[in-house]
């Protein structure tokens, strides 16, 4: 309460304090439930263990959530990422399946290139609707969210396309330097985004556009280009996530690939402390948010609860986060604390 | 509307367009700053009286005003105007107008609310597109398609809507000050930290911004200090033309005087300034020349020499430019 705060208070008031607590609690619960949870062993030069699996399965969500963070920072939202995940996987697998040599590196590289390029184009379309035509982001991206799965269906011809291609399989389940390729890819993208936004002025300009678009435009910020770009980037990352997901199962399922991933991504962003009202964003917060969600999903499964109940637990987390973020709730809590501090004078001394 | 009136319908007509009010209404109710000024029969109230009631200084009080030192018109023999608007206009916003602003000159825009002051400024600043006419910067035709394009020509525009179009509330004083300069450089070339600190320190000291903490969020500052931060943002871009739309509205008297002083100093140093204010005294105190607007038309332009009084300007606004 005074200007000089103790290190402990600084930790307590850090905006990631509660998300990290939630993560630790979840991990602890899993360890209690199954003591081997935290153990990581080396097998054939690869790291194995529940934690490694957690990271691997969380990699696509992290990619999608990173793009979502940037979109949300500009006051927008991208509902179409799940559909882009499906399209990207469908395109890549269909190309590989129809290629004469599914196992060659060239075929896979071309497939990946086509899938990512198409995802990027879809993002450019979203960005065009939002930044040039001025359509509300939730409506603009809803178009692709609903139409996208239909497009994916067209590409796969209504079938669940499966292929056998070792190089493609590596994206989702291969290992580099002992770590899953998916984790390395996600880490590289995370680092690149962090450097690009925080070591240049891009982060501040994105926040400025999100907080006050008109003031930013009058200050000479290319508000339209920035908004346009974040949608393109969001779809590009979703496309990469789609490759991971389809590679993991070596099948393109137009109906179920990336289903509801947009909701998980939005949730991860919000848990990480980036407000849906736009403005200040936190990439590390999003990372924590992704881990919380991924661990939560895992915990529910490990505790033997039916996975169909998972949404209920997510809902509880959403409510808790929203309450913690709501200004009204904070006022109520702060007022209570003040009242409690005022009545006994001694406690006021201690807490101050 | 007259037919409706003759049929017995009561009509409440709300407008700040003088001619419409005189053409349509039988009685007028004048409101100012949320208060009732009075109710008058249209036939009995002259335009001059109406305008002074709207502005809020009675004619007697106006003539009693302290004669602030008038400034001599800038010496502009042989110089080109920094900015020349030639037949610049935008449909439904402002009728085509001509306006020259010379280096080191303060041009005041006078007129009632809705007379087109802001609209004129926005065209000069590239905030709106002009339908007709052209802008010349230092003699050369320039297309100001966006605020960014105008900034490239060293034109800075501070909007009258401080909250909606000026401050970026959740960013700090530091970020708000460097926003314009950084946007001009582009996202890839971040201002070096040392340069940022120097700039921010310089403007916090020069404009006496309080709190003097660069990390304070601008939304928590008083109106006057927010305005000073915005001025710092524009000054940091080293403009040659500074367009200030109501820079002193809704801020305390102290900050107001500081901003006025600053404008005079900047002009002395050779900057061109377009100064807009609803307070005519302020316009007269600062301007070398005054352009008068009414009903979205520029109706007159007068040099602000020793003889010009607030009364004269009110007269010009009321009469629509014809000698009263």
Helix/sheet category of chain A = mainly alpha
Question: If you average the pLDDT of chain B, what whole number results?
Answer: 86
Largest interface by Cβ-Cβ < 8 Å:
A-B, 22 and 31 residues
Q: Quaternary state, please?
A: heterodimer
Element-level helix/strand string of chain B: HHEEHHEEEHEEHEHHHHEHEHEEH
User: Which of globular, elongated, flat, extended, rod-shaped describes the shape of chain B?
Assistant: globular
List segments of chain A where confidence is low: pLDDT < 50 over at least 5 consecutive residues: 345-352
Over all CA atoms, what is the radius of gyration of chain B? 21 Å
Strand content of chain B: 15-25%
Strand order of the largest sheet of chain B: 8-9-10-5-11-12
List SSEs of chain A in N-to-C order.
Answer: HHEEHHHHEHEEHHHHEHHHHH
Tell me which CATH architecture of the largest domain in chain B applies here. Answer: 3-Layer(aba) Sandwich
Q: What percent of the residues of chain A sit in helical stretches (DSSP H or I)?
A: over 70%
Provide the number of structural domains of chain A.
2
Number of separate helices of chain B? 13
Q: Biggest β-sheet of chain B: count, sense, barrel?
A: 6 strands, mixed
**Terminal Cα span of chain B:** 30 Å
Helix and strand content put the structural class of chain B at alpha/beta
Global geometry of chain A = globular
Residue share in helices of chain B? 25-40%
How do the strands line up in the largest sheet of chain A?
1-2
Task: Write a compact overview of the structure shown.
By secondary structure, chain A is mostly helical. Chain A has helices spanning 7-13, 17-33, 50-73, 81-98, 105-132, 137-156, 166-173, 181-198, 202-211, 213-218, 223-249, 261-271, 283-302, 310-325, 327-342, 345-351, and strands at residues 41-43, 46-48, 161-162, 175-176, 179-180, 251-252. The longest helix of chain A has 28 residues, at 105-132.
């Amino acid at each position: 309460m005074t200007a000089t705060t103790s290190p402990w208070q600084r930790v307590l008031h850090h905006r990631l304090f509660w998300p990290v607590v939630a993560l630790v609690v979840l991990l602890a619960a899993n360890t209690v439930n199954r003591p081997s949870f935290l153990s990581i062993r080396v097998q054939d030069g690869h790291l194995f263990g529940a934690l490694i699996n957690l990271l691997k399965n969380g990699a696509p969500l992290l990619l999608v959530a990173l793009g979502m963070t940037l979109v949300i920072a500009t006051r927008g939202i991208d509902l179409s990422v799940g559909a882009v995940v499906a399209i990207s996987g469908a395109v890549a697998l269909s190309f590989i399946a129809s290629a004469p040599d599914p196992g060659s590196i060239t075929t896979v590289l071309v497939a990946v290139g086509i899938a990512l390029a198409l995802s990027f184009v879809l993002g450019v379309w979203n960005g065009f609707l939002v930044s040039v035509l001025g359509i509300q982001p939730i409506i603009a991206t809803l178009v692709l969210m609903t139409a996208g799965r239909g497009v994916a269906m067209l590409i796969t011809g209504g079938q669940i396309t499966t292929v056998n291609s070792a190089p493609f399989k590596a994206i989702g389940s291969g290992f580099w330097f002992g770590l899953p390729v998916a984790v390395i890819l996600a880490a590289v993208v995370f680092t690149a985004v962090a450097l690009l936004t925080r070591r240049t002025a891009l982060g501040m300009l994105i926040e400025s556009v999100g907080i006050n678009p008109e003031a930013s435009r009058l200050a000479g910020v290319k508000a339209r280009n920035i908004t346009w770009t974040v949608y393109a980037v969001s779809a590009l990352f979703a496309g990469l996530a789609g490759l991971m997901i389809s590679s993991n199962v070596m099948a393109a399922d137009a109906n179920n690939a990336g289903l509801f991933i947009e909701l998980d991504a939005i949730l991860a962003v919000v848990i990480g402390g980036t407000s849906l009202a736009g403005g200040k964003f936190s990439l590390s917060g999003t990372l924590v948010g992704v881990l919380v969600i991924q661990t939560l999903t895992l915990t529910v499964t490990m505790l033997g609860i039916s996975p169909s109940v998972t949404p209920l637990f997510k809902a509880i987390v959403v409510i808790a986060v929203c309450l913690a973020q709501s200004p009204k709730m904070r006022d109520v809590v702060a007022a209570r604390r003040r009242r409690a501090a005022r009545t006994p004078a001694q406690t006021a001394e201690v807490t101050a | 509307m007259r037919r409706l009136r003759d049929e017995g319908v009561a009509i409440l007509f709300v407008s700040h367009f003088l001619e419409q009010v005189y053409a349509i209404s039988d009685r007028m109710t004048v409101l100012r700053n949320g208060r009732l000024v009075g109710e008058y029969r249209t036939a009995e109230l002259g335009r001059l009286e109406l305008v002074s009631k709207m502005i809020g200084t009675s004619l007697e009080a106006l003539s009693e005003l302290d004669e602030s030192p008038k400034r001599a018109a800038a010496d502009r023999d042989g110089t080109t105007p920094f900015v020349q608007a030639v037949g610049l206009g935008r449909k439904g916003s402002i009728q085509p107008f001509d306006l020259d602003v010379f280096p080191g000159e303060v041009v005041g825009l006078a007129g009632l609310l809705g007379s087109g002051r802001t609209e004129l400024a926005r065209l000069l600043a590239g905030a709106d597109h002009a339908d007709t006419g052209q802008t010349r910067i230092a003699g050369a035709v320039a297309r100001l398609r966006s605020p960014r394009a105008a900034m490239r020509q060293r034109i800075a525009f501070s909007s009258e809507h401080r909250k909606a179009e000026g401050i970026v509330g959740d960013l700090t004083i530091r970020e708000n000050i460097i926003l314009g300069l950084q946007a001009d450089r582009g996202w890839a070339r971040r201002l070096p930290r040392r340069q940022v600190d120097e700039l921010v320190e310089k403007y916090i000291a020069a404009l006496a911004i309080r709190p003097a903490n660069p990390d304070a969020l601008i939304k928590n500052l008083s109106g006057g200090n927010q305005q000073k931060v915005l001025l710092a943002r524009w000054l940091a871009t080293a403009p040659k033309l500074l367009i200030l739309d109501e820079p002193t509205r809704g801020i305390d008297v102290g900050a107001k005087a500081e901003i006025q002083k600053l404008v005079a100093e900047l002009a002395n140093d050779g900057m061109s300034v377009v100064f807009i204010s609803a307070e005519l005294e302020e316009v007269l105190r600062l301007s070398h020349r005054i352009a008068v607007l009414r009903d979205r038309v520029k109706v007159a332009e007068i040099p602000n020499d020793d003889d010009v009084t607030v009364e004269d300007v009110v007269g010009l606004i009321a009469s629509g430019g014809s000698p009263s």
